[in-house]
Amino acid sequence: MSTRFLSRIRAEYAQLAQASLLRRHPTIDQRTGVSYRLNGHQVTGFCSNDYLGYAAEAAPPIAEAVPLGAGAARLISGNSRELRELERDLAHLAGAPDALYFTSGYQANIGCLPAVLQTGDLAYSDHLNHASLIDGLRLSAATIERLPHLHAPPRTPSPASQTGLTWWVLESTYSMDGDSPRPEDLQRHHHDGADTYLDEAHSLGRYARGRGWAAHHTLQPTLTIGTLGKACGAVGAFAAGREEVIDHLRRRARTAIYTTAPSPTLIRLLRRHLPRVAGPDGDRRRAKLRANIQQLSHELGITTDSPLFPLLIGANHTALEISAELLQRGFHVQPIRPPTVPPGTARLRLTVTAAHSHQQIASLAKTVRELLAQRALPLRSAAGHHA
Ligand SMILES: Cc1ncc(COP(=O)(O)O)c(C=O)c1O
Fold first, then answer.
1. What fold does the segment set 20-49+280-374 form as a domain?
2. pLDDT confidence of 156, banded at 50, 70, 90?
């Protein structure tokens, strides 16, 4: 290794440390539900995306012998009937005609966006879109225009220089603010003959029958991305839409083509698990999640119906300090800092799940209030603060 490379990464390390922007993997073990040990502290976690509380539970048993690996990419010899059946289940979950499986939401976005956007297309991208959407857009040939958060694309005719389609690339529940677009804006956009690319990562599984926000509002985006690592509590993702659109992705989405097909063991587990998410077990958890959201919303005085509570702190080092104090008091809440959120809007992002008890939520809210009051910081949501 060259000494110049070492000095480069050391200089970057020093810069990040100076700005309170260093990131480290927390070491977690002995997990039972929302309780675990974190770097030696016994904590209750309030920062997962396991909204229905499935992730920490035992996987459904599989008695039969299922192969570990697929052995090849799908277009070679890694495809299987069961993977196709899983895709039909996923399409059903999303309320769409067909679906294509991806190993993660990140892979789905960086594969699908370049596959559907072409030269001459104009893509309006929400200011708070997730990194995977931003990276997917960068890999595409479209012209990108950033929209202020939650603003709809302009309805005026596109510039004469634009020869292609007009897309709106957005999320149905924003991962850092917990808010959602207005369904009527999407309806109008579709009515004007434009296309929508909707990422449902934080919505899928939270609505009736395990569906997402779009199905709940009877909207039909051109393409919907669902992830299985959040409310579904597993891992993986899919793109859902009309058969021809999904078929186009099979031929064009490079992250689904040039990669080994998913493990048959994982496919079997997902096929056994998804009916729980869509059925009465999921309904009970959705009801408990709603009750927990209401409780935290009430205790913090923040009105929301999403499980994400972003508390605005501002300075990076203050967000780090409060998070460290929460850890001392038995709560794991990650500070979210730039570049994940805009500079000056560092926040504590609390997430509540169906697995939290009334007592755990009450105790978290009381501790957060105390820690903010000690610093004379107001308790306010970061949603809408985009410095
Ligand atoms: C909006 C959004 N899209 C995509 C992803 C990536 O999904 P995955 O974790 O399955 O890669 C995330 C993850 O946080 C997300 O918040």
1. Aspartate Aminotransferase, domain 1 (3.90.1150)
2. confident
